[in-house]
Predict the structure.
Amino acid sequence: MASIYETATSVLAWLGEEDDYTEKSFALIKRLASLSDDELKRITPGRLANEEVLHLIGSCGHISFWNSMVRFFQHNYFNRVWIIQEITLANIRLAVCGKHEVPWDSIVKVSRFLTLSSWTRSFAPGGFFAALITQPSKHTLPNMVEANRRTMAADESKVLLYSIIRARRFLASDPRDKIYALLGVIEKSTNGKNRLTPVYGKRSVAETYILAAIQILKDSDDLLLLSQAEGDAFRTVEGLPSWVPDWSCSRIVGLGVTGYARFSASGNIPRSLSIDEENRTLAVMGTKLDEIVMSGERKEDILSKKPFPRLLAIICALPRPYHTNQSPSEVLWRSLITDTAGEKRIHPAPPAYGSAFLSWFNARLDETAQHVDKFQLLRVREILSKDPDSLSKIALQGPHRDATEAEEYETLFSHSPCLRPFLTRNSFFGIGSESLRGQDSIWIIVGSRAPLILRATRSGAYEIVGGSYVHGFMGGQALKFCKSFEAIKII
């Protein structure tokens, strides 16, 4: 099938018969796609009735058009794992629904706009469109598929793993298709690799994932795969070693980025890896950075407006200043978004996001005030008010907060909801898999761009809990004072 999509003059994506929402949703998509990026930035959920916005989108400004588009992005077509191959390889693509059609590139542009702006929170529980959404919205998925085309153009050697990472959000009736449906994307480079040959009979889901993981590790020069294994909270397939991701899990895992290219926790030291295929174990080289002693609530819970007393306790325990000579406020806001912001995913994030964070976080403090210890709350407010940035003080203390800034920070915060903050014995702050717990240790593993959270077993070996962001240690800084690397076994 891959060769058919590659050689076809054009590929039609059939979305099914039209319904009551098709005409208006297609009209709004076409209108939004015709606007420049600067014009799109002016269109926010809180400004739909604004005269400037109405001028930009004309007759499509009525709420019925937006409601129709919300319904459109619930089409089951968008989360079928097989469409990744269809759309990635096609040349000219057109989406068709009944008698209506729209260029696929227009859907991608709107998907990107909705994903990277504050609109993405409108599709979440409690958001602007919550009453219309009967299942998880698929508005982010066309943008994910398009990312595969960009990866192919830049570095084909990473396409398979990147595709599998992005395919987590997609569905397959057979879990093995989370691997097999993507092989056509790099058909030439998988020829002769028996571990990747589709076998639907005797080969179990676990065996399929294990063989794919081994092949990916053999074909790569890093350990990116290991940071995609996120612990017990994300596993349903039995028989998987801790280092093999359970690709059947459709939740958003990891740090919210695909390749982790902006990080280099282990510096430029070449990877050291030995794979024991028979016993399903890995031998790697690493050095222990520290041990987790405190963990906070999941980001997903904070977004759901639940109280977060454990995070407040961590804030109270942060050193002032942090070992990077930054204030607790700066350490906090940078870490919670992996120090990455903006449409171009700038790292480190621009300082202006510090003010945006305080606008957002102070609103969260107001909402949780009745459910947490008042003395702890006062202590946190005091700590944040001592931020040296005068603009931050204004954002924290002033009676009027910048709602647009707060929405923008919350959007960044929401991109990786299945993480929780933690503090280590030596007061290092970070975020990692929601599966983490006290006494888990943070390791710098040669070949891994992000520090890995490991859990010791009685045998002396380790299990992978997931990747992490540890503030002040994402660029190789740990190599200056950590002990020498040692061989460790991962099971």
Residues 390-401 have pLDDT under 50 and may be disordered. The two ends are 37 Å apart (CA to CA). The CA atoms of residues 421 and 431 lie 4 Å apart.
